[in-house]
Amino acid sequence: MVLVKEYRICMPLTVEEYKIGQLYMIARHSLEQSDDGEGVEVIENKECFDPDHGKGQYTEKRIHLSSRLPYWLQAVCPKVFYVIEKGWNYYPYTVTEYTCSFIPKLQIRILTRFEDNAGTSENCLNLSEETLKTRIVDHVDIAFEEPAEKHYKKEEDPKFFKSHITGRGPLVEGWRQTDSPMMCSYKLVEASFEVWGLQTRVEDFIQKCIRDVLLLGHRQAFAWIDEWHGMSIDDVRMYEKDKQMEANDKLRQSLPSALETDKTQESN
Fold it and tell me: What is the DSSP string of 214-238?
């Protein structure tokens, strides 16, 4: 059975504000995580269209993360290892898929919807009755849960951060019931690794990694609010483009032979 979890991450923002904050956070976070041959390489970023959801933005990325895998996965993975991320952003609804050519049995799919509430919608993603029976709902608290010690920064801790521009924060106990504005990111994560003997272990590991990234990224999106609040969509798209170029350059400097090999293979 595929492991399905629905993460609900509340933010002291409106859905419209988060549209800018999310793009800013992803671009900056990706650059900060790109170092020593690891990080995010952007392959494609363009407009797309869906008959049900209208205009959107399609992105394709390579996430290089060999040394971040647990030792029992590093043992079977090549030194140059990356996951392919494909995303379709029809804000406030998005679809993200992850695959890996080296591990064809690995499949991850994330459905996301953003709503102006405190995580109270029971089925905003229009899940089937079968999925509703098996999903696990997990509320992620950006204020009173902390990321791994190596990622912790006091200036990015919502318990201490106060926005000079909006006046929001610090977040105190019970903030999800008392603060305004309030929005929630609903993320349904389906992780599948159908390999006998490893399925449960790998799927649990994948869900933990995704949860860790969601916690850190949403804490940062709030803590960086004074830097992105007031940006237009054009402003943040330009920022995104600049940071993607910087991240790609950092990776090319640390993985020149690997990236050139990939390009040669793609052109053949």
Answer: HHHHHHHHHHTHHHHTT--HHHHHH
**Token representation of residue 43:** 């392959």
83 touches 101 (CB < 8 A): no
Q: What is the DSSP string of the chain?
A: --EEEEEEEEESS-HHHHHHHHHHHHHHHHHHT-BTTBEEEEEEEEEEEETTTEEEEEEEEEEE-GGGS-HHHHTTS-SS-EEEEEEEEETTEEEEEEE-TT-TTEEEEEEEEEESSSS--S-TT---HHHHHH-EEEEE-TTTS---GGG--GGG-TTT---TTT------TTHHHH-SS-EEEEEEEEEEE--TTTHHHHHHHHHHHHHHHHHHHHHHHHHTHHHHTT--HHHHHHHHHHHHHHHHHHHHHHSHHHHHHHHHHHH-
CA-wise closest residue to 163 among 12, 52, 45 = 12
Provide the residue-wise pLDDT of the chain in tens; the chain has 268 residues: 688 999 999 999 999 999 999 999 999 988 887 765 567 888 999 999 999 999 999 999 988 765 555 555 555 555 556 889 999 999 999 999 999 867 778 889 999 999 999 999 999 999 999 999 999 999 999 999 999 999 999 999 999 999 999 999 999 999 999 999 999 999 999 998 877 777 788 889 889 989 999 999 999 999 999 999 999 999 999 999 999 899 888 877 766 544 444 444 444 4
